[in-house]
Specification:
27% strand; alpha/beta; binds zinc ion; Aminopeptidase; Immunoglobulin-like; 409 residues; 30% helix; disordered N terminus; 5-stranded antiparallel sheet
Length: 409
């Protein structure tokens, strides 16, 4: 997994909402020596724990003659750590610290025996904004060690490449048209729900196209679809498209079928960690399984690192999504008269998991219900719902921009 070199780049997300707003990367990350250290966790494993005042870019690699593990960190102040040398490992002969180049500091562990990186991860506290880096090393044969040794030597390696970084989307401030990405559910080999000859994937595509046109006509929005045709797109693929399009908000559109006795009518979902009721859990499992229908599990996103680092953005995005869901509920209720009893639900839909883009999923109705299906097939009903959604977006964008302005002060 880690051949030659492991580069992990993180970045700090400024979070006024949670009071964890530091001065970004300009400030040195401090090490909390009391909660940091290096220790043997078995006779063949050793672990480094670093408690940092903020997340920073870093990379880890090994060098031989003598065998060494090298850590490069951006903007880390080693003072606390080096002073007490919290070293409880038999595997380390010597620990050295120094500036590697402007803005980058280096820690070198000189080893008593060859060890290679086994696991590494940086966890950011979403509230306080501090971070814990854990890197586990395991004993290796001299040959294994030699095979993994050495930093990348190609030209320009001197500044660690900023891989795996997706810059979080800047919050809208009400000074430009909002970019709305509409996501018609299902598509291609995945038809979604079916009732007679009517397929969910077709109904939601029609609705999405109509909504898109209406949004563009207002002059207040740019609108795009994740799919314009009957194509299969994975759930992560839908989020990636939204991000590529620069989405300010993301709306997934569905019209699923549920067992009889379950709800009818329009329902708006925003993300929860755990699905809030049986129907949400059932639907979440259904949506998530869509990715498996192509025969390949596409849900594993490769840049897990970037995903972890977006954790902080999630907190703020969640409340923005919840507000959006509430406003869509009241907008649609105004335009079509009434909604079901609990029109805003929380579910663990993967497609809502973009950490930096407010996202909701609208179940326009349930194809399994005759009246809902009939509504979906009626342009007059669709236009009313669309009016309600546009009204909701108008209200939300003003409120959301006002909150963003407040957070900036
Ligand atoms: Zn669906």
């Amino acid at each position: 997994m880690f051949n030659k070199i492991a580069i992990f780049v993180s970045f700090f997300l400024c979070f006024a909402a949670t009071g964890a707003c530091a001065q970004g990367l300009r400030a040195l990350a401090r090490i909390d020596a009391a909660q940091s250290g290096i220790a043997d966790i078995s006779d063949h494993e050793m672990e480094l724990t670093l408690k940092l005042s903020q997340a920073v870019p870093y990379r880890i690699f090994t060098l031989s003659d003598p065998d060494r593990i090298v850590f490069d960190f951006k903007e880390v102040d080693w003072a606390g750590f080096s002073a007490i040398k919290p070293l409880k490992s038999e595997k380390i002969n010597e620990l050295r610290f120094g500036v590697f180049q402007a803005g980058w500091s280096r820690m070198v562990m000189e080893l008593n025996e060859p060890m290679v990186l086994d696991e590494v991860g940086l966890r950011i506290d979403p509230v306080k904004g501090d971070a814990v880096l854990k890197a586990k090393f395991k004993r290796a044969s001299p040959r294994e060690f030699a095979a993994q040794t050495g930093p990348r030597m190609e030209a320009g390696w001197d500044l660690p490449a900023e891989i795996n970084v997706v810059a979080p989307k800047q919050r809208q401030l009400g000074d430009r048209p909002l970019i709305v990405v509409l996501d018609p559910g299902h598509g291609g080999i995945d038809s979604g729900a079916r009732q007679g000859d009517k397929l969910e994937k077709d109904l939601v595509l029609i609705f999405a196209k109509e909504l898109k046109e209406t949004l563009i006509l207002t002059g207040r929005y740019e609108a795009y679809l994740t799919r314009n045709d009957d194509d299969f797109i994975s759930l992560p693929g839908r989020i990636s498209r939204a991000r590529m399009l620069g989405a300010d908000l993301f709306i997934s559109l569905h019209a699923d079928a549920l067992k009889s006795g379950w709800a009818t009518g329009t329902t708006v979902y925003s993300l929860s960690d755990e699905a809030s009721n049986e129907a949400s859990a059932y639907l979440a499992a259904r949506q998530d399984r869509d990715d498996l229908l192509a025969g390949v599990d596409l849900t594993r996103q490769s840049d897990a690192v970037a995903t972890v680092l977006m954790e902080m953005a999630r907190v703020e995005t969640k409340s923005r999504s919840d507000l959006l869901a509430d406003m869509v509920v009241s907008g649609v209720a105004q335009s079509i008269g009434r909604l079901r009893k609990r029109p805003h639900l929380y579910a663990g839909f993967s497609v809502l998991k973009a950490p930096d883009i407010p996202s909701i999923l609208i179940e326009l109705g349930f194809m399994s219900n005759k009246r809902d299906l009939n509504n979906l097939l009626t342009i007059g009903w669709r236009q009313k719902v669309i009016e309600g959604i546009v009204l909701a977006l108008d209200t939300w964008s003003v409120e959301d921009a006002a909150q963003a302005q407040l957070l900036r002060q």
